[in-house]
Amino acid sequence: MSSRVVIDPVSRIEGHLRLEIEVDESSHKVTNAVSAGTMWRGIELIVKNRDPREVWAFTQRICGVCTTIHALASVRNIEDALDIEIPKNANYIRNIMLGTLYAHDHLVHFYHLHALDWVSPLEAIKADPVATAALQNQILQTYGGIISLYTDFLGGNAYPRKFPKATPGYFKTFQDKIKNLVQSGQLGIFAANWWDHPDYKMLPPEVHLIAVSHYLNMLDVQRELVIPHVVFGGKNPHPHYIVGGMNCSISMNDMNAPINMERLAVVEDAVYTQAEAANLFYLIDLLAIGQIYVQKGWTYGGGLSKERVLGYGDYPDEPYKSIKNGDYHQKILYHSNGVVENFAQGVDKAKYYPLTNKDLTDPDVIQEWVTHSWYQYPNNNEGLHPWNGITDPYYTGPKEGTKTHWKYLNENGKYSWIKSPRWKNLPAEVGPLARYMIVYTAVKQGHIKPSWMDEMVVNQIELVSKLLNLPPHVWMPTTVGRTAARALECQLGANASNYFLKKLYDNIKAGDTSVANMEKWEPSTWPSQAKGVGISEAPRGALGHWCIIKDGKIENYQAVVPTTWNGSPRDEKGQQGAFERSMQDTIVLIAKEPLEILRSIHSFDPCLACSTHVYNTQKEEVVSFKIGGACYE
Question: Taking the model in full, what pTM does it have?
Answer without folding.
Answer: 0.95
